[in-house]
Amino acid sequence: MDTSAGIWWVNRDGERIRLKQPVPRLASDNYDFLLACLLAGQGVQFLPQWSARPYLERGELVEQLPDCWRDQSAFGATIHVLFLPHRRNTRKVRVFIEGLRAHLRAQGLG
After folding, report:
1. Quick check: pTM over 0.70?
2. Which residues does the UniProt record annotate as the domain LysR substrate-binding (predicted)?
3. What are the CA-CA distances from residue 14 to residues 7, 17, 68, 69 (Å)?
């Protein structure tokens, strides 16, 4: 993914298109905060489908560029589960990861 400031790279009909990013009036690295702002009708943001789908289905968010998409690498091809190294093989961690996989598959995302 190109991370040039002020540029969004999207794909449409097999072409890579460069869009000028709107100048943000607000910026944060807190995803929950940004999502709350979107749900309050403030702003535009690219969201991973697994996160946006429930809000789109309920009409709480509206897709603005339905014919464009970002490379999966824009958000990472996977969801990362972080845990301490000594917890890798604990039953709780394995059950959580299995449950997350099942949930994403049920949503058509895994």
Report:
1. no
2. 8-104
3. 19, 9, 10, 10
Say if residue 87's pLDDT is above 70.
yes
For the record, the structure tokens of 95 come out as 């059950």
Residues 6+ apart with CB under 8 A from 96: 81
User: Is residue 8 helix, strand or coil?
Assistant: strand
Eight-class DSSP state of 68: -
Indicate if the pLDDT at residue 78 is higher than 70: no
Q: Which residue has the tokens 């002020």?
A: 6
Residue 40: its pLDDT value, please?
Answer: 93
Q: Find the radius of gyration of the CA atoms of the chain.
A: 17
- Please answer whether residues 52 and 65 qualify as being in contact, where contact means their C-beta atoms are separated by less than 8 angstroms: no
In order of 21, 26, 51, 110, the CA distances from 45 in angstroms are 10, 12, 12, 23
